[in-house]
Amino acid sequence: MNNIQMIQEPVPTISTTNKPIELYIFIDPLCPEAFSMQATLRKLQLEYNHYFTWRFVLSTELTSLNCLSKRVKGCISGIELDINHPVLPSIAIKAAELQGKRAGTRYLSKLQEYVLLNYQDVNSYATLLKIAEDVQLDMNEFTVDFGSKEAARAFQCDLYIKREMEVDEVPSIVFFNECIEDEGLKVSGSYAYEVYEHILQEMLSEQLVRQPLPTIEDLFSKFHTLSTNEIAFIYSLTEQAAERELKKRMLQQKIERIQTTHATLWRLK
After folding, report:
1. Based on CB atoms within 10 Å of each CB, which residue in 18, 59, 114, 263 is the most buried?
2. Which residues, other chains included, contact 35 with Cβ-Cβ below 8 Å and sequence gap of 6+?
3. Could you give all domains of the chain from N- to C-terminal order, each with its CATH number?
4. What pLDDT is recorded for position 269?
5. What is its main location (predicted)?
6. Residues whose CB is less than 8 angstroms from the CB of residue 49 and which lie 6 or more positions away in sequence, other chains included
């Protein structure tokens, strides 16, 4: 397990909640590895969210951000009808986060859904506005924030954190405990679920207590769109068993099925 390291870099102020662990999750939002790790992150949240807080750190490596910010402002003011650039999805996520952490997470999930379903080009400003509508953000606020210095700086801050913590592989997770003098633990790449459980237990120095998993109906109320693989992983089922359970709910008109090239997705109707 050579990709697990202790790091000594200072971290932004840790959460003051009563949750003793802080996770910094480094992802490229459009990278396939981010999709494959999603099931692990969701199961960790479901079973152990009472132990940790977390934040996504966007790790897209792109240049000319300042120049692009001016072009986005031009687009908003009507000078340009639409623009297209690989940095735009990251800026959009940060703009959504300005409406709250949950809003940012909803936006990121819907963005990844668009990528998997190949609906429209997610590098397009117009498409990113549509995603904001889909997750019911305040559109006036989102439009202003998209072209603001605050969204650009938030993205630049993420890239700064990535450099400071010497994260050179995504996805990666850095674990911190509530004692800011202690080193963080950087886990580069993806591992089996049990590895992350073990790390949490070692950092807490106590036996972990799992929260019970929600019903499948409640799970869809929380995450809205899930793949067959995710359902199988979260509930420790075979893919065939997960498929049977999902088909039952499809027949009950609770969810609908969407077949893609890469995965079978299910979402609330």
Report:
1. 59
2. 112, 115, 116
3. 216-268 (1.10.10.10)
4. 85
5. cytoplasm
6. 211
